[in-house]
Design goal:
Structural class: alpha/beta
Strand content: 15-25%
Oligomer: single chain
Helix content: 25-40%
CATH topology of the largest domain: Rossmann fold
Number of domains: 3
Shape: globular
CATH architecture of the largest domain: 3-Layer(aba) Sandwich
CATH class of the largest domain: Alpha Beta
Radius of gyration: 25 Å
Amino acid sequence: MNTIDDLSNLQPTDLDAGQVFSGKPSGTTVRGYAVPSAYTPSIDHDYLFHESSRDVVVWFLNPQEPLYVFGPTGCGKTTCIKQLAARLNYPVFEVTGHGRLEFADLVGHLTVKNGSMTFEYGPLALAMRYGAIILLNEIDLTSPEIAAGLNSVLDGSPLCLAENGGELIVPHPMFRLVATANTNGGGDDTGLYQGTQRQNLAWLDRFTICEVCYPSTDVEKSLLARRFPSLPEALCATMVDYANEVRKLFMGEASTSNLTNAIEVTFSTRSLLRWGDLTVRFQPLAHQGVQPVTYALDRALGFRASRETRAMLHELAQRMFPQQVEVESPKTETSEAAPLQGEQALRFMRGHLHHTPTVAKPRVYLQVVHDFSGKKQDGKFWIGEASPVGLTLKWGKPDTVGQQHFIPAENCEGNNPVMELEARAEKKIKEGYSLNTTKSSF
């Protein structure tokens, strides 16, 4: 689907909530759509719904009021909403609040097209008409006078478009409104979130409000391991422990001796994943005598801190990473690496495809081979090649040309050839095929 008009063809359906959110049928139903649209977020298969997202999941099961989600920076508020929407095939219209946001930016305005005046609908009007989610990020940066203009919509009333002759848009039964913020709407007395404003109490009273915090230690360790399979398990654990110590320093609750002063920066889950990514990318620096972990630390967090805080961060790193573990280097085509099987192959594939959510390169090439010795299918190959126009599949027996099939991009999962490639390769690996890392190109 490529146009707004295609949204009118979406068919609401009941989905099994357990199957959608955890992969295990529960018998509890949740409303969603039968198929995704061009406005549906892509599914991140490595995403974990942690304990803090429980309230958001419950709201999706029976949303009777708009939802206001608040929590510290980078804890995953927006990602949680979008990943839930992705699994429900929900279209999402996303707006980021700021001090100069006007109500017309949400509902629409008159504009000139082909020499005549026409009304261009805004994201709120479109979400209400077609049954989508309007996601208002950083809503506490918006002027309370502008936000209060949403009061009638928050109450479930139709939206009146005065500029378009008084047109009334009755909210679609599937319409949902979600706002995210760093504060609970009562203002910021910490000085950390500049520009946030105290919101109108009557406006806040119209929301179901929930707080999302950083994931637990075990969840963050799992996130690092799944996103970056080449990071050793022990290193992932220490990086998460380090992030938690920094958070305690930020809150003035440090347990590390001699490091009792509060600092002005903290480690969000977003920064933690950035640190893991940069540690892998900067691994070649180890051959030049540069420690990738601390080098990446500065670029993930340290350079945002004052000189004194940065020195403190490095002192803590020296204590927690006395001997930095070398990260497994990526294999090149000339390496003698053995093919990967089972869960190890899946982790490697997902970790690499995570950096290629769409086909930005000319192609994403992946090869798996059935190598069960002594069986007739030994050596049978399966190759997937994703490109901007679609996915090309090739398969066959050893020493043969094999067969070939092409799937256009619009017929791929989420209209994304990379997602289709990952899903089909995962099935093959689970059937016993091995991932050939020396022949695959991500």
